[in-house]
Amino acid sequence: MPASKKIATVASAELLMPEYWEDACKHLTKKDRVMKRLIPQFGDARLQSRGEAFITLARSIVGQQISVKAAQTVWERFAKLPRKMTPGNVLKLKVDDMRAAGLSARKVEYLVDLALHFDSGTVHAGAWEDWEDEAVIAELVAIRGIGRWTAEMFLIFHLMRPNILPLDDIGLINGISKNYFSGESVSRSDVREVAAAWAPYCSVATWYIWRSLDPLPIEY
Predict the structure, then answer these.
(1) What is the pLDDT of residues 102-137, one digit of tens each?
(2) Distance between CA atoms of 61 and 145, rounded to whole angstroms?
(3) Domain 3-49+164-213 maps to which CATH number in 3.40.50.720, 2.30.40.10, 1.10.3210.10, 1.10.1670.40?
């Protein structure tokens, strides 16, 4: 059974937080000199989930290939279009209105395809909590615009799986370069070597690496 079945606890009416965070921080502080330095810098801040699969995936699509700040701006404009952010309501939106919110034509296509998959019940969102990581990824990448990176963001931010290492994430690569290699370029092998000390909490370490580059907390 995936660890996520016992890691989520309600933090507010909207946000969920993983219960494993304290244990992860203790492990990382003990095992990794960079984490020992980074973790205290961010106090009680931690990974948060909105608890809504469709919204998490939609935010991931909106945020592809743009900065955290730009993604937040576009999302806020897009989120004002439907009365409520649901698959059915997204399918009712006009393409011109979505484009005017700052979405590219391709991202509009991706969001519509995502909404179609959820609206038709093609994806098994209600069962994902019980699925292994790779099974969830396999179903998600069948949706247009969702590659492995987006699926991994979903595993981290929605299902709050503790041990995801997104090797294609530019922020992770840049952060490891900055924090471990004095700014020198790094390979996937370098990333895996650094992350060996992080397991079984690669998601948590990745989150702190992101924060070391951008003080804005990343949310989907």
Answers:
(1) 999 999 999 999 999 999 999 999 999 999 999 999
(2) 7
(3) 1.10.1670.40
- Spatial contact of 173 and 194, defined as CB atoms under 8 Å apart: no
The helix/strand/coil state of 10 is: strand
* Per-residue pLDDT, 67: 83
> Residue 9: helix, strand or coil by DSSP?
strand
Residue 5 predicted with pLDDT over 50 = no
CA separation for the pair 82, 86 (Å, rounded): 8
Q: Which residue has the tokens 């939609």?
A: 58
Contact 82, 93 (CB under 8 A): yes
53-157: CATH topology is: Endonuclease III; domain 1 (1.10.340)
Per-residue pLDDT at 46 exceeds 80 = yes
- On the question of pLDDT at 23 being above 90, the answer is yes
- Supply the pTM of this predicted model: 0.84
Q: How far is residue 190's CA from residue 184's CA, in Å, rounded to a whole number?
A: 11
Q: Where in the chain is the domain with CATH 1.10.340.30?
A: 53-157
Element (H, E) at 16: strand 16-18
